Amino acid sequence: MMRSFTTSPDVQLRFTDKEHFFHDLAQLLRSGIPLQRALEHIGTGRDRAAGASRSLAPLVSNGMSSAFASVGFASLDVEILAAGEQSGRMETACTRLSEYYGQLAACRRRILKTSAYPVFMFHLATLLLLIPAAITSGGVSGYFRHLALILGGVYALVGLGFLTVCLARWAVRTNPAAERAICLIPVVGGFFSLGALSRFCLVLSLGIRSADGVMASIQRAGRASLSAGLEAASLGLVTTIRQGSRFAEAVRQSKAFPPDLERGLEVAEASGRLDEETSRWAGIYQERFFSRIDALGVWIPRILFIIVMLLIGVALVLSVKQSYSQVFQLLEAE
Questions:
Q1: Which string of b and e fits 70-91 if b means at least 16 CB within 10 Å?
Q2: 0.85 cut: is pTM over it?
């Protein structure tokens, strides 16, 4: 059963905030400072991470996982930290989270930076190309009416796209059948599946030798994957293993994982290096996942630029057509 987490709306950390928070926490833990004292050290600052640390420090003595969940950290963070705590590798878990959020922050910056110019050009073109039409039909009021219609339509499409992505993420997390359908979509499907596999392998690598056992680690990895299919598969793995199958054999029987990962786990279990191999595959899938995001960052500006050029072309055609129409009307009037 999926663990439920309560969140607090007053702690909202950005990717960059989490990157620095988990980096600082890993450094302090690596030096031998206990978790509560480490949080108190970070809490002396004035940024958002310091605010989160001040909220966390008095709560961790009652349970690390519940403390992080209660102040608004994502379920992925909580599961990775729980795996690190149970395996005695909290500093490693924090380091991996810092790297993960650092890469997300870098990808977001690149996408915003490369998208800024075409977005600016679209707004500038819209503002300028509506001037001739406004002069000939409606003046200032007509200008702003046409501007509101065009920009409102574009913003509505952007909002619809964002809503679609949110619904897709929700479906991937809650419905295995919907997830399978989404994963069949070119590019989009790979984006979701690679992210889920990277999270699954990362948590499993941290917790495979944890104090609460392999079974708990598998289930934790399933929850952390944020994939309904992998979460269901993790429960199936636990059942199959309890019936006497080996881990790699259970993975192969589930048919929920890529063949190359199945082969790697088979070799790793035979060699006694399952934690190292799952960590390696976590890195492989994470690299592929962020490569997809980088590709998205390359194509979004190009698509926006094409849209801008098409809009400019349409606006010019309409403007010329309207001008000819008015010229013909004047000639007929004479």
A1: bbbbbbbbbbbbbbbbbbebbb
A2: no
